Structure formats: structure tokens, C-alpha cells
Input
Amino acid sequence: MPDVDPITAEVIRCGLHTIANEMGDTMIRTATTPTFSESHDFSTSIFDARGRIIALADALPIHMGASKFSVVATLEAFGEDLHPGDIIVVNDPYHGGSHLPDWTMMTPIFHGEELLFFPVTRAHQGDTGGTVPGGYNPGATDIWQEGLRLPPIKICDRGRPRDDIIKMLQINNREPTFLGDLKAMMGSVRVGERRLREMLEKYGLETVRDCLDYMIEYTERRFRAEIREWPDGEYKGEAYLEHDCQGVRDITIRATVTVSGDSLKVDFTGSDPQTPGFINSSLPNSYSYLFLTLSSMIDDGIPRNEGLLHPVEVILPEGTVVNPRPPAPCTACTLHAGGEVGEALAFALEKAIPEKAYVQNIKLGMPLVTYGTNPYTGEFYVDQNVMMAAGWCNGAYGVDGWGALAPFFGAMTMATGELHDMLYPVETLGREYTTDSGGPGRWRGGLGADVGIKALAPMFLHTYLIGTKYPMRGFNGGMDGAPNRVVIRAGTPAETEVAQTAFEEPLSAGHVSRAAMGGGGGWGDPLERDPAAVLEDVLDEYVSLEGARRDYGVVIDEKTMEVDQGATVRLRDEMAEERASKQEEIVRAVRYLSLEWQELCQEAVNRDPKFAELAGDLTMDLNNVIEDGPGGETLCLYWRFRNGRLSETSVVSPEAFANLEAAATTLASYDTFMKINLAKLTVEKAVTEGLIRFEGDLMKMKEHAEALHRFTEVRRSVPTEY
Output
């Protein structure tokens, strides 16, 4: 590498960063929708002619790694057919995009005949065509049902707009403001082009080029030095999604991180197969979340550029939920399962660098997308309700979770309620933090928000909901955040609490929809939190008096609003002793199918309030025929339900089984049942793969499917040895 003056290199690096930020400022000032101008759901960056990340604006980190794939796809698509003045746009997840709503735009910059740079803008469009306004289609089973797919195409050719292409894009978009936002993106990359040419003129081609290589090498060297401080070894982590909107439940993402010297290997082998529903994370999206998570764990002084990628080998197996094959739908991926990619990675590294590892995703879904005819303008509109992103940041070592914005959305903000109400036929009834929603910990998780929106005109709503069964998890002894809850048409006879999805739900004027969104997980043992910090949280109404006592062991005098130090010490000692006692019980696993295991399963099921609620007066007998046991034997596990309770459990021989009458029988191998009990395999997936069979009254099983699903979940809570 040529000798480079470090000061000059730093000046150029800061200059490139400033250019990327100015491109973002252009978007804010010229965009026509609050998604860009208020919420800042876009990112801007600079790449070189080799597709290397050079500079990233202070914007959305989840866009940055994915934008690299768009630049590489553009280089592959056009090769030598790139010219000054061209503008290229791409959104297809299988041709360099991440999900269809995120459109990536770039322009090539030349010095003479030599290609040097791409200023890049990626922005979330309010609509992309497809079957559902807004692009988020919980019913989609392939990508064509999600919207218009754009491989790299030119919308400007040698400086001249391609009006035919632009018109085609416009008529495939429901948003009347689409063209204004598209022009804002074009203006953004043009500003980047102008400023980069000024930099080249000021410092010269050779100096700028040498400084780029220096910057990337510097970042790589600093990152490798950090990795060398991490203990060598293999570390595993998992993250979970409750459903894919198409019937697949309990989806697992698995990460194995191998630390070896100054390099990392991150392997997602073992993650579940791609699903029919739209939560599949495209390769660019998974890649982006991976590096977002890693970059959050290292020194803030390390510049974020291509050098971060060099020490890391990434394995994202094709055909899995983290790298699906086309035409799998994936519009939800920038929330899920992309977020869970980062979550699994963070939980793996928790074991290696506990004080640095924390999660960067949220548990959201996409609450309350509404659309219809705007009575103010007479035009169709789509309201993504981006203003509802309020909370979800996990606590981290030394830092409580934030509350005002989603952490991985970086510079994204909430649009003001007043502006939102001016643009759309809605009234924002309130947006406030929810007391006790942040996960307790030595450092508390960020609070979720309770948001109420009233329809002022007829409209339609659709949503999908994640984070009800698997909320934001705590780290290093921290507790989970509160789960999510969405209710539409609240307070009316038609009130509906969303279980998984709500699709094209009609709302009349006056209907209220409420979203109680969960909080972030805590970090560290809640009993180690400074009582003074707990008191401050109580005074701020982040934590209730009851929550202070229950979760933190802090006793606060209601009259004086002061911490009772003596009572707090005693209560914390009692809670620690009780916890240790329970932990001993939990650690001691019992053998699968043993009498003790049967008794514990029965006790757990009968004391579970959710099962009692779902079971009602459930009365039926079930048999599990367990084939190919450890000794090659076949066993029969018999469950008897009477009036909503599990009244009998027994393991019998095949001969005795023949004399039992059961409503239904489930037949599978010992290995299959074990994987189901360990949540490594869902019943639905076992059926799809032909690993499990059913006999008997299947209609009765279907009638009680929710109760039986909960029955399976509860059994998993029993520590079991196989």
C-alpha cells in the first residue's frame, strides 16, 4: 500500500461521511411523504467501483449491508454498460434488494473512462403495487403477491430520464405522492455525485483512491485486534418466531459463532427451512443484520466500512428462513426474521463477550397499516403508521434501554402526531410509555408504548403480530420485556384482539384501534439494580411500586416515596434464596417417559391458566405411539383429558394399547417426539415432512387444536433427559 498521510485520510473519511449525510438531508427536505421527511425511513451511503462500502450516513444500519448487494447486482447486470448520468434502481430481494418496499437508487461516477464511486440511497416506499396496499401482505405465499419486482434497471440513461420506465413505475404504485418521493431519491444521489466530484477535484484521484484503501485496511486492523481479545471457542445461540402468518409455528434461527484468533466464522446451519409465509429473511437482509449486530459490539471509534467484513466468514444456508430460494415471500424480513438473525448471533456471543453482547432487533410485526380514500384530498392513501415505533430497545451493559425509537432503526424517528392527523383521516388519541413494560434487569429494558388511533372516515386495516409468545428477551440474567397486544374496533361489539393477523378489516368512522407494544429485555440480575435507579423509575412512572418490589426487590415507602433500605436488603435476600431453591429444581432433569416425568407433565398442564382457558370442557383420550425407542422398542404414551383437565397419564405396552379406546392416535419415532418436545421441530413441520401420522377422530383434534398446541408447549417446560 502506498504511503498515506493519516491526517489526510481522516479528512477525506470525514468528508465522505459528510457527503453521505448531506444526501440524507436532501431526502428530508425534498420528500413528499412523512415516511421520508418525518420518520426518515431511508439511508444514504457511498460505495466504490468494486462494490466496497466506503461511507455510511447516520441513518438506518439495516439498510447498509443490504445496499452492498444492490451495488454488486448493478455491476453484474450492466458490466461495461454504465455511463455518466445513469441512475439505476433495484428492489428485488433475489437481485440485490432486501424486501420489495425498500428501493435502492444509485448513480455511477467516472473520472475519465474509469468508474470510481456509487452514491447510494435506499428508501422505504409507501406502496409497491401487489395485492395489498403498503406491500405488507400477511396472506402472501410467493413474492409476486407482494409487489412489483425490480431487478437493476435504468431510470435515467446518460442523464436523460427514461419517462417510459418512470411512468411504468408510477402506474404500478397506489401512492399519489410516489413520484415526488422518487424524485427526492434521484436528487439525493445527484447531490452525492456533485460533492464527490468536488472532493476529487480538491484532493486528486490518486490521493482519494489511496485513502480509500487505507481507511478499509485501518478498520479491518482495528476489528481484528478486538476479536483477538475475545476467547477462542464455539458459541451457540437461538432466536424464535411464533408464526409465519401461514400456519407454521415456533420458527427457530440458530447461530454458531467460532472465534479463532483474529477471525470469526458465523454459521446459521440448523436454522429452520424457509416458510410459506412472508417472514423469510432474504440473503442481503440477513447479511445486513449480522453485521449490524457485530458492529454494535465493537469500539465506536472504528469506522464502519468494508473492513468490518474481511475478518468474518458467513454461512447462510440456502433454502432456510435466513436465505430462502425464490419465489418465497419476504416482505416482513426487515423486521422478522431478520431481527432474529441478529438476536441469535447476540445470544451466541453473550457467552463469549457478555458485557458487549446485546440484541438489536424489535418484536413488532407491522401494527395498523390503514388505507382508503382520503376525504381531505379525494385520493387513495396508505398510512404505514411509522410513528408507532416507540420503544423496544434492550438494556445493555451500563445503559438502560431507550424508549423513543427502535434501536436498530438508527436515525429513524417518529412522525409527529399532529402532522400525521393533518395528512390522514385519523385522530391520534395518545402515545405514552407503558408502566412495567420494560424487562427488569440491572439495566432496565426500554419501555413499550400504548398507542390509540381513531378512524375519522371509513378505511381498511391489516396487520400481523409478532412478539406475543416470544417477546424481547433479557440478557445475562435480565428478564424479558412485556409482549405485544393489538386490539381493533376497541370498545364496540365488533372488538377484535389480533392473535396473529388481521386482513382487510373494515373500520368505520369512530372506530378506535389500540396497540400496546412490548418493551425491551433487561440486562443483568434485577436484584443488582441500584435501588436509587429503581426509585427514579418509579417517580418517572416507568416502574410501578408493585413492580419495584416484585421485580427488583426494592421496598419504597408510599408516603415518603423513599427507599426503605433495611426492608430492601431483607427482601432481596429472601428473593435470592427462593430463586436458588427454584433453580435447583429446574436444573434437575427427569428421564423422558418416566413416572416422575409423567407426574410433572400432568402437574404443569393442570396449573397452566392458558391451557385451562383454551381447554374449556375438553374431554377426550389421546395416544402417542412412540416407535424406534432407544432399544428399538415401541411404547405407547396415553393421555386422558376430562372436563378441561389432564386426569391421567401412563406409558403402556403395545399389547395394553390395543385394549385402550382413544379419540385419536399420533404415531412417530422416538427421535421425532424428542425434537417436538425440545421445540426443535414443530408438529406442522413434522406432518409436512412425513415424520408423524394421525389416526382416529381428526376432526375432534382440529376442534381442540389450540388447546392441544398449548398442551405441547407446557410439556416443554418440564426439564427432560433423553
